Amino acid sequence: MKILLIEDDRKTADFIVKGLKQSGYTVEHCDNGLDGLFKATAEKFDAAVIDVMLPKLDGFAVIEDIRRKNIAVPIIVLSAKNSVDDRIKGLEKGSDDYLVKPFAFSELLARIQALHRRASAIAEPSTLTVGDLKIELLSHKVYRCGERIDIQPLEYALLEYLMRHASRVVSKTMIMENVWEYNFDPQTNIVEARICRLREKIDRPFNTNLIHTVRGFGYVLEERK
C-alpha cells in the first residue's frame, strides 16, 4: 500500500513515517497543504493521512479540493481537536475517519487497514502461505513447518513482497522500488545481500528451498516439486 501523509509537525511525521515503513508500506510525506494537494492529485494512493492545522493550505481545504476533483482515496484526519463539531466538519468535507492527537500508532495502522479493506471491498487476508511457509500480516510473525522464524523488519518487508508475488519473477529493480523505496545504483548488491540473509533463515534450515534465482531476471518465491 502507498500512503500519503500531510503533516507539518516533524516529530509526528517522523513517528508515523517510521511506523508505516516498518509495517511494509510506501509513504510519501508533505509538510504543507499545497504540496500535499499537488501530490494527492498527481499520484495514486491507497490512503491519505492529513493533519488539520497545516501551513499554506489547511487540511479541511485540502480534503475539500481532493473530493472536488473526484479523487476517491480514503482519508483519515489528524487533529488535536476532539469536539463533535470538528469531527462532523471533517466528515462533511469528505474525510472517512477522524483520529485525535495524541494517538497510538497501532490505532492509526488499524484504521488505515480498515479503510483500505472497505475501499477495495475485499477482505485483506490475515495470512500469506506458500507451501509450508506462512506469515501473519497483522503480527508480522513468520513460520515454516510450524516453527517460528525471527527476522528483521526489512527482511520481513522483502519476504512479504516475494510472497505477495508468489510464483512470479520479480526483478532487482522492482524489489528496490517497492521494498527500499530508493533508487539505488543498479550495480549495488544490496538486494542480493538481503536475499542471501533471508535464505539463511527461510531455506537453509529446511529440506527444500522456496526462494529461487532466475538468472538474468530476478527472483521468485515458489514451492517446486
Description:
It is a single chain. This protein is of the alpha/beta class and 225 residues long. The protein folds into two domains: 2-120, Response regulator (Rossmann fold); 127-221, Arc Repressor Mutant, subunit A. The chain is 41% helix and 21% strand. The protein is built from eight helices and eleven strands. The strands form three sheets. It has a five-stranded parallel sheet, with helices on both faces. It has a four-stranded antiparallel sheet with strand order 6-7-8-9, covered by helices on one side. Strands 10-11 form a two-stranded antiparallel sheet. The longest helix is centred in the middle third of the chain and has 16 residues, at 105-120. The radius of gyration is 20 Å and the shape is elongated. The two termini are 32 Å apart.
